[in-house]
Amino acid sequence: MKSIVALLVLLVSPQFAAAGSATAKPAAAANDPYSHPIPTFYVSAFVTNPQIVTVSLISGFTMHGTSSDNAGGVFFELEPGLGGAKMSVGRASIGAHGMHQYWKGAILRTWGDPWGMHANQTFVGAEAATGDIGLSFRIGAYGEVSGGPDNWLVSGGIGFFFN
Fold first, then answer.
1. What's the pLDDT tens digit per position in 83-127?
2. Among candidates 68, 114, 60, 123, which has minimal Cα distance to 92?
3. Which fold has domain 34-162?
4. How far is residue 74 CA from its own chain's centroid?
5. Which residues partner with 117 through β-bridges?
């Protein structure tokens, strides 16, 4: 009788049937806080070139960690400004009290009267940033892909990072 009940459990249980064996996940893996994604959302404001003043919306769809103050993973960013806008994807590490580092690839489009550049140009490049207690410093290098005489852009900025 016990063997019939065990066979029925194996056939009915989706966890065991899908795996094809009677082995379950270890309890430690099921309780690991780093194995469960936490959706996060951040906002930053920067004074930067060539965009002048920006507000950035950052969403980490694949962030992981024990809270939004201890997370890391892939993020997407939209950063409109007075002299242009950026769309980015990158990898970030966020610690307690706003400590952060990130690396990102971005597409930058200028308009209006951007600092140190001509308007209506498109650049592709990379940036890195670090900061603590909400203050953020960043630097990036971009190559011009269309629209004007500027071949290269070195971008830098200082701002605040909110979560």
1. 999 999 999 887 777 688 899 999 999 999 999 888 999 999 999
2. 60
3. Porin (2.40.160)
4. 4
5. none
d(CA 126, CA 78): 15
Question: Can you read off the two tokens belonging to residue 117?
Answer: 């550049």
- Domain residues of the chain, as ranges? 1-31, 34-162
Tokens describing residue 30: 């099921």
pTM, to two decimals: 0.72
Distances (CA, A) of 24 to 7, 20, 21, 33, 35: 16, 11, 8, 18, 16
- pLDDT, one tens digit per residue, over 43-93 is 899 999 999 999 999 887 555 666 656 677 888 999 999 999 999 999 988
Give the closest residue to 151 by CA, choosing from 112, 121, 126: 121
